[in-house]
């Protein structure tokens, strides 16, 4: 059985899946119902975002200055694993244009690393240290939804209701794992299957 926490099955065509999800997203936004292709975890996330009055066109709010985010991360328990994360994901990031991020328990990003072009693309929607990426702040996204559910979850680009994170390319999936002390998130605007954890 396909896991409800995984957006794209390994055996599935990721491009075709992304197109199907985009069409389903458009159907929901047009008020024409909820296609069965949408996972319940996503439908419920969208409902929470709608109830919270989330503006999907608003960039992630900046809660901390870059210096303060760096200072907080320096004393964070996950700071010690960043060399390991870089070592494990370095080659993958270069090929697949991944971003890896770590947030605090509230969803405020404290550290982000990855492909230089994706880091640059992430600046516009404020997917950077100091930005708040909770569901209530920016909508459905790997960091915020994992925190809301307290469970690892993979989110595809068409399943998001937010602008936080670089614009998707051919396909996008993000898996995040929540922990009480912090979150690390592996993002891949072009292809994501990697999960780091403590983590979207």
Describe the structure.
This protein is an alpha+beta fold. It has a single domain, classed as GAF domain (Beta-Lactamase), CATH 3.30.450.40. Helix content is 35%, strand content 14%. The protein has helices at residues 14-29, 40-51, 66-74, 82-96, 116-121, 135-138, 142-149, and strands at 99-103, 109-114, 153-156, 173-178, 183-188. Strand 1 (99-103) and strand 2 (109-114) form a beta hairpin. The chain starts with 13 loop residues before the first helix and ends in a 12-residue tail after the last strand.
Proportion in β-strands = 5-15%
Order of helices and strands: HHHHEEHHHEEE
Gross morphology: globular
Oligomer: single chain
State the CATH class: Alpha Beta
* The CATH topology: Beta-Lactamase
- Going by CATH, the architecture would be 2-Layer Sandwich
Q: Number of DSSP strands? A: 5
Strand order within the widest beta sheet = 2-1-5-4-3
Number of domains: 1
The CATH superfamily turns out to be GAF domain
Structural class assignment: alpha+beta
**Spatial gap, N to C terminus:** 24 Å
- The low-confidence runs, each spanning 5 or more residues with pLDDT under 50, are 165-175, 177-200
In which range does the helix fraction lie?
25-40%
Reported for the largest beta sheet, the result is: 5 strands, antiparallel
